[in-house]
Amino acid sequence: MARAKDKETAGASARADERENGFVPPARLSVRKAYKMLVGGQFVRSESGRYIQVADPMSLGGTKENVPWASRKDVRDAVVVARGAWEGWSGRTAYNRGQILYRLAEMLEARQGELSRALERGGLDASRAATETAAAIDRVVSYAGWADKYQSLFSSLNPVAGPHFNFTVPESMGVVGVVAPARPALLGLLGAVLPIITAGNTVIVLASEEDPRTALVLGEALATSDLPGGVINVLTGRAAELLPHLAKHMEVAALDLHGVTPELARKAEEAAIVNVKRVRTRSIDEAAWFDADGATSPRWIERFVEMKTIWHPSGA
Amino acid sequence: MAAEGGNGKGAVGPSGVRTYPDFSAPTVDKVMVEERAASLGKRSIKKEAKVAGLLLSIAMMDLTTLEGKDSPGKVTQLCQKAMRPHASPEVPPCAAICVYPKLVPVAKRALAGSSVKVASVATAFPSGLSALDVKLDDVRRAVAWGADEIDMVIDRGALLAGEKTRIFDEIAATKEACGQAHLKVILETGELGTYDLVREASQIAMLAGADFIKTSTGKVTPAATPAVTLVMLEAIRDFFYATGKRIGMKPAGGIRTAKQALHYLVLVKETLGDAWLTPDLFRLGASTLLNDVLMQLEKERTGAYQSGDYFSKD
User: Interface pTM (ipTM) of the complex?
Assistant: First the structure.
C-alpha cells in the first residue's frame, strides 16, 4: 500500500513539473480517421497518392482533414469493377433488389448520428443536418419500394397491324457515371444514385466537392449493407478533371450530371459521342431535393433504362 | 514392357545399367525469388515502349482454346483472329494456335498459308496419367494431323513420388515421337509444391530434349506466376551457360491483362536478355489476354479506355 502511495505522489509531482514547463499531457490521444473512397466494396486511397484538404470545424485550432483526390486511373479501376458488378446486379430479381435497398435503409438508420455529424462538419447546422439525413434514409425506402414496380409502369403492349404480339420492356443500361450535386451533399448523392441502381445499373459517383467527407462516411454504410461490391463506387476529387475521362470511357453507358457548368457539360457530351452515351443533366435547386413526391417520381428511373421492344408471332 | 522403361536417352552403360545425366539443381530462395519477380513488375512502361511491348506480346502469343466444348467453328474463328488480331495493319499475327489433337486438322486448314503455327496438347492432357504407349500414340497422331508443336504434360504423380528417371525417359520418348515438331514440356508447377522441385523438373525436361518448358496446363490454380516463371527462366539461363543450348519458355494460364504480359517480358529481358525476346524462344499461353492487349493498344491510339463489348469474344 505504502509503495503504491509513493508512486502516486511521484506521478503527481512529475505532472506538476510538466505543467511548470508549460506542457499539459492530454487525457488521451484521439484516433483520427483516414477517409477512403469506396471502389468495388473496398476502401481505397487514390492510386495517385493525392489528397484534398477539407476543413474540420469541429477540431481545435482549425485542423484540416485529408480526403482522397481521385485520378484518371482511379476512374478506370472503378469502371472495371462497376462493369463486373453489373451482370450480377441487373440479373437479380427486382424483388431482391428492393430487399437489398431496404436493408441499406436499415444500415443508414443505425448510422443516422454519424451521417448528421458528417454533414455538420461539412457546414450545416445541427437541425438541417438531421433533416437531410432523415430525408436521405426515407429516399432509400422509397426506391426500395419502386424496385419491383416501375417495370409495370414503363412496359406496354403495343397495337400493331399484323399477326404479332408487340411489347416493350425496360432494361438496365450498364455502368453509369454520376456527378453528384454540391448541395445537398448526402441527399443529393443518394437521390441521384438511387433511381439509377434501382433500374439495375451500376454507378461511379463523383461526390460533392463542397462536402466530400460525408460521401465517404456514406461509403462506410454502403459497404456494410447487402449491396454487392461495385454497384455503387464513390470517388472524391475534381469533376472538371475526372468527368472527361468518364465521358470518353467506352465501357460507360450513360452519364448523369448535376450542377455541372455548361462548359464542362458540353465537353462531356462531346466526349460521350464515341459510344453514343446517354447524357442526362438535371439541375434542380437545393430545396427541390427535399420534395419527397417530386424527387421520388419513377420518371427519374426511366432516364436510365433502355426500352426493348419485342415482336412475337401470335400465330393468327 | 519395353515401353514402360521408355526408350529415352538414359544411356545403357557397358555393365547393362542405364545411366542418367545429373538432374541436380541449385535450391531456390523462396523469399528472394518472389521479391525479385514482383519488383520486376513495378516498372512504369509508357507510350512507345508500351506499344512496342504489347505488339511483341501479340507476336509471342499462343492463342489457346482447351475446352470440352471446342467445336470446328470455334477453332476456325480463333484461327481467323490469330492471323489478323486487329484491323490496324501494325498489329502482327499471333505465334500459334493451341488446341486439342482432334481439332488440329481444322486449325491446319484454317491457317493454311499463314505464319501462324498449330500447337497441340497431347500425352493424355491435362493429367498425363495414361500408359506411355497411349501418350506416345496421342503425340504421333497429333503430329500426323499436322501439329507443328506438341505441348506435353509430365506425370506429376511420378515426379512427386521421386521417379525422376521415369519422367526423363517419358520426355525423351515423347521428343522422339514428335519428329520434326517442337516439344513444349508442361511442368504443371501448381501441382509441384516447391520452387526446388520446379527447378529440378525444368532441369530434367531440358536434359531430356525439351525445346520449350511451360508452366501450366491452365486447368490448375495457381497457374503461371511471375515467381515460378523466374525460377524456370533461371534454370534456362544456367542450362545455356552449361550447354550453349537455348531453351524456350512459355508461361501459360492466368495471364489475362496487358500489364501481366509486359511483366513477363521484363522478366525474360532481365533474366535471359534480348536473345530470348522472340517468338522462337518465348511464348505466352493465353485465351483472354489478346483482347486486353488489343484494348490497351486502342487506348494508346485513341486516348479513350476501351470496352470488351467492341472486341470479338473468341
Answer: 0.82
